[in-house]
Amino acid sequence: MQAWYLNENPYPFVPQHVLDAADSVRGSLPNKYCDPKIAADLFEEALDEYLLCDDIGINVVSNEHHSGINCLFGASPVILGILARQTRNVRILSLGTLVTVRQDPVRVAEEYATADVICRGRLEIGFVKSGGTEMASGNMNPVGNLERFWEAIDLILKTLSHQDGPFSWEGKHFTHRHVNIWPRPWQQPYPPLWAATGDPETSAELGRRGMVNVLVFRGPEETKRAWTAYRKARTEAALPEPGPDRFGYAAFVYTGETDEEGMRVGSKLLWFLNTGLKSAPQYSKFLPGQIPPHLAPPLYRSGGAALRPAAALMGLTAEQAIARGLMFAGNPDTVCRQIREFQDKAGKFEHLVLASRSGFMTHDEATRGLKLFAREVLPRLSS
Amino acid sequence: MTERLSIRGMELELLRRGAGRPLLLLHGFEPVSPQAPFVELLGEHAEIIAPSHPGFGRSPRPEDFESVYDLVRLYLDVLESLPYDAVTLVGLSFGGWLAAEIAVLGSRRVERLVLADAVGIKVSDRETPDILDVFNASPAEVRRRTWHDADTWAPDFDAMSDDELIAHHRNRESLCLYTWHPYLYNPRLRRWLRRIAVPTLVLWGASDRIVSPAYGRAYAEAIPGARFELIEGAGHRPEIERPEAFVERIVAFLKE
Lengths: 383, 256
What we know:
The structure holds 2 protein chains of 2 kinds. Chain A has helices at 16-21, 36-56, 76-86, 105-118, 133-137, 145-161, 200-209, 219-236, 259-266, 271-274, 297-300, 318-323, 332-346, 363-382; strands at 2-7, 59-63, 92-95, 123-128, 167-170, 175-179, 193-196, 212-216, 247-255, 327-330, 351-357. Chain A is an alpha/beta fold. Chain A has a single domain, classed as Alpha-Beta Barrel (TIM Barrel), CATH 3.20.20. In chain A, helix 2 packs parallel to helix 14 and helix 3 packs parallel to helix 4 (105-118). Chain A starts with a strand and ends with a helix. Chain B has one domain (2-255): Rossmann fold (3-Layer(aba) Sandwich), CATH 3.40.50. Chain B is built from 10 helices and 8 strands. The radius of gyration of chain B is 17 Å and the shape is globular. The A-B interface holds A 23, 136, 139-144, 280-283, 286-289, 293-294, 296-297, 299-302 and B 66, 135-139, 157-158, 160, 162, 165-170, 172-173, 175-177, 180-181.
């Protein structure tokens, strides 16, 4: 098994009364609440954690969200450039530049090719469909997002792999008459590809394309459903059976010396769900184009259901998060056992993404958890 | 009662009511409700032809049909297909944008134009949005700013049937598809409003805070000879909040 460290670099230091009064902690929270000096410290700690991972054999993940306390990595390619230069050993996954909120996929491909060359072929490219507040902060139409997603990917892949001089793209969502990037990527025809989704239809398309399907905080049932759709689509297309290296899972992971420590410190990760997900209805359940209209009536009625699966996760305790397969926490034996149990339910996967720092967890706590995981858990999962 | 209108392979839900001079009514964020009192009142003076835009109400939307450009051309086809030499074109809100675009193109079939709380042009400077962002603003703010008296007129979602809520959600999705960017306006439209050569009435709810009366005045000033009138006690939907006043103004304009 390969481990991948993800620190979304949240900014939790906004007064609670401000967060309570805000209808959304992303998208619309004024940035006067973000002290750049504190942000600088957070960037330094996060980058140091990534450099530690480079030494202890945990791959690193750079992600992207915009305009909120949940993630300071809005300008994701900048972070990717730093990781490409400063790490020396591990692989680097971008998960990812939000291609549906970028006007020009050619520029995205150029950034990826540059990072892949700087790190001499250690880059992996992940695609994320995006949605919610990202549509407002990215100024992009939420209706047609999925169609834009695939067209952006197609254009990025052609841009990365085309080597014979300028080509022209006149698509539905993107036009670019003269595409010819320098440098071309180190890896040929392009770096390994991932996408994060739990939606079976999108997973099926990933299967046909052979991309790594990573699920983020979805639990074993949803994960199994997505991977079943992936396998089925490959079978139907007469493509070879996928190995475990085509599958990944992202969970909150914290390894302590004892179960008590693992749970106590690990439960700090749930800030991501309990505080970082708060989103106003216009960015979530009422965002056009997110669900088919025939499912909409409960959204409008008093006491109606939440839309995004994430919204149903707010308020979980550590015990509940573990029981639902969203978190692996405890001493090394316990963490190992929880991960194996998850694999028994969902299926074998090669890539475990460790969401192992969030909220008010300190840099020291994150560092200790990572070292213990690398020393005591990872070797056993790999054997 | 609703009928269907077939137009070059497209099927539109159609509300037809009343008798008199023909009037093509283009709706705003939601299709015209057959139960709306203004329909009955206006139908005493005019034959109302009110299709639902593709993607709204029960009108299907073809997959490759997704811009205001498509809607404007569709309604040019509709105008050509009606068995009248000329009609009065009435546009409400979003439909007002479509009506203004059609009038600018100079269709021979349009003899009079009424724009009510219309969107479609850019008036203020680059840092002042003219039109409330109904997708990025909170639902409570949209409700407050749509109506003069929201408690009386705003829809009660709890009292709506599944079918009505599904239609409401679909209407919103279609509006978003057509109008997200630039948001509810065409940057080129204002300079061409001078081409409108038919008598034009610009009606505005005095309490409209989706798009203000000042914007309505600017709209009227850009159309040669257009008259601007306010309807007191109404917000963005004067046809709903003040049906008598709304119909009176239109009827008076038709008689001129």
